[in-house]
Amino acid sequence: MSSVAKKIQEQQIQEQQRSVQTVIVRKMKISFGEMILICALALAIAFLGTKVISNQAAIYKTNKSIQMTNHSIDEQTRLNVDLKEQVSELSTYERIWKKAADLGLKLNENNVKVVQE
C-alpha cells in the first residue's frame, strides 16, 4: 500500500504543480503605437487648453478696451452737454446787449437794415 499511497501523493503533487504553473499573471503592456497615441492625445489636450486660455485673455482685453471707450464716450457726451448749456447761457440777448453797452456800442435804428428773403 505504500507504493499506491506514494503514487497517489505524487499525482496530487503533480496536479498542484500543474495548477500553479497554469496560473500566470500577465502584465498588460502598452504597445508602441498606443504610446504614440497617448502622447499625441496629451499634446492635443495641452495645445487646446493653451488656445482656450489665450482666447479668453484676448476676449478680456477686448472687453476692457470696449469699456474704456464707452467710458470716454460718456465723459465726452457729458462735457458736450455742459458746453451747450454754457453756450445757451452766454448767447442770451440780455447778456449780448449788456456786453455791447459795456463796450460803448449803442443801438441806432438808422444804421439797422432789414434783410428779407
Task: Give the key terms.
mainly alpha; rod-shaped
Describe this structure in words.
By secondary structure, this protein is mostly helical. The chain has helices at 2-22, 32-90, 93-102. The longest helix is centred in the middle third of the chain and has 59 residues, at 32-90. It starts with a helix and ends in a 15-residue tail after the last helix. 0% of the residues are buried. The mean pLDDT is 85.
Content-based structural category: mainly alpha
The helix-strand sequence is HHH
Could you estimate the helical fraction of the residues in percent?
Answer: over 70%
Point out poorly predicted stretches.
Answer: none
Biggest sheet, in brief? none
Topology summary:
Layout: H1 2-22, H2 32-90, H3 93-102
What's the short version?
The protein has 117 residues and is mostly helical. It is built from 3 helices and no strands. It has helices spanning 2-22, 32-90, 93-102.
